[in-house]
């Protein structure tokens, strides 16, 4: 079965991990510092705070934003549930707004219509690697006194009008899961240009520990002393995984270039199919395509999906609308709230998209799709 996503590991990655394993530090050491500096430079901001997963990065980002019970977070339903769940775990009420029918990204107008005096964060997701309309969301956030969070789990390596994803929002989160644009096996990061947000993020990911004597309540306790002023968690990424991330980051441009080649090949071969829509990006966006979200006739989606699986093509669907999950249904959310997102979901099939796909693999996918759509 040809998977829809797969990591790309070479000898340089293995060597980096082995060096870390043989060093004096397995965690909280120099490899973490090195990776964070490289991620921040790539993002074009001053701070990167690594974490154990993309989900952890979201949790850290919402905590840094000061989300508390009763606050509202406006976000998209066309995402993995973690985008909403991590804010809900801090007590936020999640307000889902509909998406742009062309890109699947959160629609700025729909998001603004959902803003109330309790809204604290608007969180867009770079679906498939396509950057959200950051200028519109920055403007919305500024006018309403909100923070703009960009869930860039799909889009490290993407740019918008020449600016890297990571520099576009108040807070940006990355995921380094194996199917993502680069991997640390599990892992993620929060990036920001804001010193205070970075400090709060760094504290939350390390139990909330305060080691700076100038900030301690009882600084004369002894040289061993540390304090917790606000609760946090252990979301520290180990040096071994950070070493892999630094090695992978050096290959990110090559990964993105190969993904673009695959996207172009799919586009050329599938754009003539009746009832099928290929993924698009707005002017000024240069996505590092994480997914290839093909949309097919809704009434035939399952038939086409099962045909592709039977032909050995490991397609996937991204994503079940977040509020369809029973955990949100039990909170009173109902289907039909975001009809554009639901239509997108009902038609979507993610084709294989990863740098290790050979030209022959791409041709196999194309042939299988054409056969499945033809019926």
TrEMBL record:
<keyword id="KW-0663">Pyridoxal phosphate</keyword>
<protein>
    <submittedName>
        <fullName>Bacillosamine/Legionaminic acid biosynthesis aminotransferase PglE 4-keto-6-deoxy-N-Acetyl-D-hexosaminyl-(Lipid carrier) aminotransferase</fullName>
    </submittedName>
</protein>
<dbReference type="GO" id="GO:0000271">
    <property type="term" value="P:polysaccharide biosynthetic process"/>
</dbReference>
<dbReference type="InterPro" id="IPR015421">
    <property type="entry name" value="PyrdxlP-dep_Trfase_major"/>
</dbReference>
<dbReference type="InterPro" id="IPR020026">
    <property type="entry name" value="PseC"/>
</dbReference>
<keyword id="KW-0032">Aminotransferase</keyword>
<dbReference type="InterPro" id="IPR000653">
    <property type="entry name" value="DegT/StrS_aminotransferase"/>
</dbReference>
<keyword id="KW-0808">Transferase</keyword>
<dbReference type="GO" id="GO:0008483">
    <property type="term" value="F:transaminase activity"/>
</dbReference>
<feature type="active site" description="Proton acceptor">
    <location>
        <position position="180"/>
    </location>
</feature>
<dbReference type="InterPro" id="IPR015424">
    <property type="entry name" value="PyrdxlP-dep_Trfase"/>
</dbReference>
<dbReference type="Pfam" id="PF01041">
    <property type="entry name" value="DegT_DnrJ_EryC1"/>
</dbReference>
<dbReference type="InterPro" id="IPR015422">
    <property type="entry name" value="PyrdxlP-dep_Trfase_small"/>
</dbReference>
<comment type="similarity">
    <text>Belongs to the DegT/DnrJ/EryC1 family.</text>
</comment>
<dbReference type="GO" id="GO:0030170">
    <property type="term" value="F:pyridoxal phosphate binding"/>
</dbReference>
<feature type="modified residue" description="N6-(pyridoxal phosphate)lysine">
    <location>
        <position position="180"/>
    </location>
</feature>
């Amino acid at each position: 079965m040809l998977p829809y996503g797969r990591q790309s590991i070479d000898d340089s990655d293995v060597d980096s991990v082995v060096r870390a394993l043989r060093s004096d530090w397995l965690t909280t050491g120099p490899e973490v510092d090195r990776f964070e500096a490289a991620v921040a430079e790539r993002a074009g901001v001053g701070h990167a705070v690594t974490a154990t997963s993309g989900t952890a990065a979201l949790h850290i980002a919402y905590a840094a934003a000061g989300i508390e019970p009763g606050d509202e977070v406006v976000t998209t339903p066309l995402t993995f549930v973690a985008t909403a769940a991590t804010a809900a775990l801090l007590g936020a009420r999640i307000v889902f707004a509909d998406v742009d029918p062309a890109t699947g990204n959160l629609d700025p107008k729909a998001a603004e219509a959902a803003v109330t005096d309790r809204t604290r964060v608007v969180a867009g997701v770079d679906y498939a690697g396509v950057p959200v309309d950051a200028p519109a969301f920055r403007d919305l956030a500024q006018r309403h006194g909100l923070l703009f969070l960009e869930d860039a789990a799909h889009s490290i390596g993407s740019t918008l009008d020449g600016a890297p994803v990571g520099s576009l929002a108040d807070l940006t989160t990355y995921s380094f899961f194996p199917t993502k644009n680069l991997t640390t096996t599990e892992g993620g990061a929060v990036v920001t240009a804001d010193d205070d947000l970075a400090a709060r993020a760094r504290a939350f990911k390390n139990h909330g520990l305060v080691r700076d004597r100038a900030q301690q309540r009882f600084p004369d306790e002894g040289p061993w002393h540390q304090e917790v002023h606000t609760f946090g968690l252990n979301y520290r990424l180990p040096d071994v995984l950070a070493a892999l991330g630094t090695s992978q980051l050096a290959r990110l441009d090559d990964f993105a270039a190969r993904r673009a080649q695959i996207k172009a090949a799919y586009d050329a071969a599938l754009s003539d199919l009746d009832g099928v829509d290929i993924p698009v990006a707005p002017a000024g966006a240069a996505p590092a395509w994480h997914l290839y979200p093909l949309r097919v006739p809704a009434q035939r989606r399952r038939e086409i999906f099962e045909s592709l699986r039977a032909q050995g093509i490991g397609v996937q669907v991204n994503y079940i609308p977040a509020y369809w999950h029973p955990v949100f249904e039990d909170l009173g959310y109902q289907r039909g709230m975001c009809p554009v997102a639901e239509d997108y979901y009902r038609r979507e099939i993610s084709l294989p998209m990863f740098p290790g796909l050979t030209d022959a693999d791409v041709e196999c996918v194309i042939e299988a799709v054409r056969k499945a759509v033809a019926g």
